[in-house]
């Protein structure tokens, strides 16, 4: 977008005046950020309107991506880059005496996501906009993010993530588009067998819209986030009891207060269920309203609307759409089912049993009586249709309601036209293990869509040094078409280029080291290897294995004081769910280990370790460009895909990996020599699981190294760990090491040592690094989204 700098200056000063009644030289960087973002939003608003009009006037099919999380990260820099305003705005700010960097830093990261699924949703929204696909997000406007992570005595402490404290300048409240969501009550059938829902509670859902901007001003889509509010109509004002009003308001706001409320109690579970129905119902009602304005036959609905269910959290989209079609559009069951199935598609993001949502039937019956009736009818129809062709066991595995639970994954597969996994291995496991009976019934519905990442954020924006070097080397076409990165393969033996690659990495490492010093007062030697594991804390992701290995190295150095090794800084980042006891113990273990190692002069200059608090997108943007070794060490079969593995690869890190998730596809891209693989493979893990022939105690008893590290969890070797090591010790020996940490320990140790050794030959290392970047093109989320658009959503775009 071309802007007139002088005009922009005036507009910004005016916005500041409007917002704060102050002149620009008296406001803080945080205040400038707010007004600057609003000015930019105003500048793009014309294009945003045009885009909405174009989609409506051309009757274009639209995608609605329903997701509990949209981990969008900070928006200012991305927006400036995509709109082409970066340079001009930097100049304008300079004229006012401000540095863009400072303004960017004052943006609070939106508390709208937590993990891979949420970040994927953000990358997908970005790709839709950049590819000209009318793709909108639909989610929840959380008043607080999941939590802000702090550490106290090494323990994770959860603080409220008050991200909206200074308001979100990108959003627009649309009270006139509010919807009514109904909870509770009873349903009876009238004389014509029409359901009458009575005695329910009404919650208002108010949408807040944010623009999702494509590059080159192409497309601006909408991320619509719903907020639960108490809105009294004029007629209600007289009858209301003001004393009870405040309590009611708080009760209602609870629904959209926080991402993933603790669900270890029934109350918490119920709140999550409320959240899920809340944004699903509001979203679908508003989509239906927009569709009705087109004045088309209702049978056209799936030709104009695609609803994507991001994991099972929004699976209530299915009965909710059926409800609308039956009760409000007065369709027959068959047609309602047909339209719903043709509209819905579903992505599964994990095969962990505990994450495959199941709701106690009585929860649904009480909270959403009409929805529950619909689910019962869907289950009845399914059983009627398939009971004769399935065995009892197959029927048990596939039906929607069983043993007093409603199974959301089964519902999603049965009632959608597409179910996809997020990497080849994951899809394969869905088809052959986790959902094999559903795959038997609906083989054509299952398909793979390997995840991808947005190149705009994960290299262009976060790694400008490497991006410029790539421009210089192969031209700028890769920024439009990431597959062009393959041209870098021609430079893998070019010693000048290899030196440049090293220089770029070193600059990034130095920048990161400066940041760590300034922000956390933590010293990192930029000459050490940066070995990084950043992701949610989960047993299957095995941060524990990483930490046990560091403990082993610590012992080794103490035993062999002259042990020579390439200095390494081990960096961790990630949150543990507040009710996930064991994951929190791993955090405590890492922090304790860090305390002892970092303060022990005997290991100085060889190993250091740091768990960065409150890991988020902004931190990832700083860490990834500086990383040498990317730790992707989940137990084979457990990580659906992973996406940080792709980000690291793109930025030239070498992956230390198990054959799990998309690591396998990364290996296929770079070849065996440019990735370090270790550990059990899928077949071996499945074999242990089905034959129950794994014995962790045997390994422990017969291996001196392993015994030494495992014992150090409980024998006082790490005084800071105190009694907190007992649970981890038990997880290995009493619970027979469910994630095969001990089994994989040695191959991990050896793979890690080999990699560190390889780092000595810098020329070879840089060559591996360039090969990784060169072959990361296929992991662009643009490529992934093109496949979703063609093979699942059947929508058009400019590609
Ligand atoms: C994640 C998977 O763990 C990761 O392998 C995958 O790359 C990513 O989804 C995107 O597909 N899953 C989640 O984030 C997840 O299951 N979150 C639930 C806790 C909400």
UniProtKB/TrEMBL annotation:
GO terms for molecular function: glycogen phosphorylase activity; pyridoxal phosphate binding. GO terms for biological process: glycogen catabolic process. The modification N6-(pyridoxal phosphate)lysine is found at residue 647. It is an enzyme of class 2 (transferase). It catalyses: [(1->4)-alpha-D-glucosyl](n) + phosphate = [(1->4)-alpha-D-glucosyl](n-1) + alpha-D-glucose 1-phosphate. InterPro entries: Glycg_phsphrylas, Glyco_trans_35, Pyridoxal_P_attach_site. Pfam families: Phosphorylase (PF00343). Its cofactor is pyridoxal 5'-phosphate. GO terms for cellular component: cytoplasm. Gene3D superfamilies: Glycogen Phosphorylase B. Keywords: Allosteric enzyme, Carbohydrate metabolism, Glycosyltransferase, Pyridoxal phosphate, Transferase. Its EC number is 2.4.1.1. Phosphorylase is an important allosteric enzyme in carbohydrate metabolism. Enzymes from different sources differ in their regulatory mechanisms and in their natural substrates. However, all known phosphorylases share catalytic and structural properties. Allosteric enzyme that catalyzes the rate-limiting step in glycogen catabolism, the phosphorolytic cleavage of glycogen to produce glucose-1-phosphate, and plays a central role in maintaining cellular and organismal glucose homeostasis. Belongs to the glycogen phosphorylase family. This is Alpha-1,4 glucan phosphorylase. It comes from Peptoanaerobacter stomatis. The lineage of its organism: Bacteria, Bacillati, Bacillota, Clostridia, Peptostreptococcales.
């Amino acid at each position: 977008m071309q802007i007139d700098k002088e005009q922009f200056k005036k507009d910004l000063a005016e916005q500041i005046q409007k917002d704060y009644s102050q002149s620009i030289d008296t406001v803080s960087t945080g205040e400038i950020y707010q007004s600057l973002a609003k000015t930019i939003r105003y500048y793009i608003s014309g294009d945003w309107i045009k885009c909405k009009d174009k989609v409506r006037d051309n009757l274009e099919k639209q995608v609605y991506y329903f997701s509990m999380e949209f981990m969008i990260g900070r928006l200012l820099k991305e927006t400036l880059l995509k709109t082409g305003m970066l340079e001009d705005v930097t100049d304008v700010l300079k004229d006012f005496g401000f540095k863009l960097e400072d303004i960017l830093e004052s943006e609070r990261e939106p508390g709208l996501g937590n993990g891979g699924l949420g970040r994927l949703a953000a990358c997908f929204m970005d790709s839709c906009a950049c590819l000209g696909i009318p793709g909108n997000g639909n989610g929840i406007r959380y008043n607080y993010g999941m939590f802000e992570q702090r550490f106290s005595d090494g323990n994770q402490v959860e603080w409220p993530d008050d991200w909206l404290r200074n308001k979100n300048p990108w959003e627009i409240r649309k009270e006139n588009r509010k919807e009514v969501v109904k909870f509770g009550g009873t349903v009876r059938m009238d004389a014509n067998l029409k359901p009458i829902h009575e005695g329910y509670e009404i919650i208002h859902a108010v949408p807040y819209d944010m623009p999702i901007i494509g590059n080159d001003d192409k497309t601006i889509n909408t991320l619509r986030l719903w907020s639960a509010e108490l809105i009294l109509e004029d007629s209600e004002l007289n009858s209301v009891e003001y004393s009870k009003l405040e309590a009611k308001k708080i009760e209602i706001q609870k629904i959209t207060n926080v991402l993933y409320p603790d669900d270890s109690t029934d109350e918490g579970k119920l709140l999550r269920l409320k959240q899920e129905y809340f944004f699903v119902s509001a979203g679908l009602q508003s989509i239906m309203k927009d569709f009705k304005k087109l004045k088309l036959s209702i049978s056209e609905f799936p030709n104009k609307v695609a609803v994507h269910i991001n994991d099972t959290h929004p699976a209530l989209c299915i009965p909710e759409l059926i409800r609308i079609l039956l009760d409000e559009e007065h369709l027959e069951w068959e047609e309602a089912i047909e339209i719903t199935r043709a509209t819905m598609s579903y992505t599964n993001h994990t095969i962990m049993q505990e994450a495959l949502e199941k709701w106690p039937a009585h929860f649904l019956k009480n909270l959403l009586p009409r929805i529950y009736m619909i689910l019962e009818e869907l289950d009845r129809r399914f059983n009627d249709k398939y009971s004769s062709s399935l065995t009892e066991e197959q029927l048990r595995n596939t039906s929607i309601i069983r043993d007093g639970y409603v199974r959301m994954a089964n519902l999603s597969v049965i009632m959608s036209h597409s179910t996809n996994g997020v990497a080849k291995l994951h899809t394969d496991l869905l088809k052959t293990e986790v959902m094999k009976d559903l795959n038997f019934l609906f083989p054509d519905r299952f398909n793979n869509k390997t995840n991808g990442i947005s190149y705009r954020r994960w290299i262009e924006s976060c790694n400008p040094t490497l991006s410029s070097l790539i421009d210089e080397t192969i031209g700028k076409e890769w920024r439009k078409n990431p597959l062009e990165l393959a041209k870098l393969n021609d430079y893998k033996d070019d010693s000048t280029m290899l030196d440049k690659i090293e220089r770029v990495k070193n600059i990034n490492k130095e920048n990161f080291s400066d940041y760590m010093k300034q922000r956390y007062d933590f010293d990192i030697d930029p000459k050490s290897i940066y070995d990084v594991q950043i992701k949610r804390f989960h047993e299957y992701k095995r941060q524990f294995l990483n930490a046990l290995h560091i403990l082993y190295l610590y012992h080794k150095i103490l035993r062999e004081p002259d042990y020579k090794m390439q200095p390494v800084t081990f960096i961790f980042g990630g949150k543990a769910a507040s009710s996930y006891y064991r994951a929190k113990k791993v955090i405590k273990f890492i922090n304790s280990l860090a305390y002892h190692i970092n303060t022990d002069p005997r290991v100085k200059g060889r190993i250091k370790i740091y768990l960065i608090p409150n890991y988020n997108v902004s931190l990832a943007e700083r860490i990834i460009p500086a990383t040498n070794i990317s730790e992707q060490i989940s137990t084979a079969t457990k990580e659906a895909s992973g996406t940080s593995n792709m980000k690291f690869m793109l930025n030239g890190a070498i992956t230390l990996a198990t054959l799990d998730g998309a690591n396998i596809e990364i290996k296929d891209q770079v070849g065996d020599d440019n990735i370090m693989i270790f550990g059990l493979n899928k077949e071996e893990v499945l074999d242990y699981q089905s034959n129950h022939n794994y014995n962790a105690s045997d390994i422990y008893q017969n291996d001196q190294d392993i015994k030494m590290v495992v014992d150090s969890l409980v024998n006082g070797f790490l005084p800071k760990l105190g009694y907190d090591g007992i649970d981890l010790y038990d997880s290995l020996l009493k619970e027979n090491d469910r994630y095969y940490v001990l089994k994989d320990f040695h191959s991990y140790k050896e793979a890690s040592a080999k990699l560190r050794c390889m780092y000595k030959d810098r020329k070879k290392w840089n060559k591996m690094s360039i090969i990784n970047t060169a072959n990361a093109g296929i992991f662009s989320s643009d490529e992934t989204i093109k496949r979703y658009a063609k093979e699942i959503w059947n929508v058009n775009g400019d590609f």
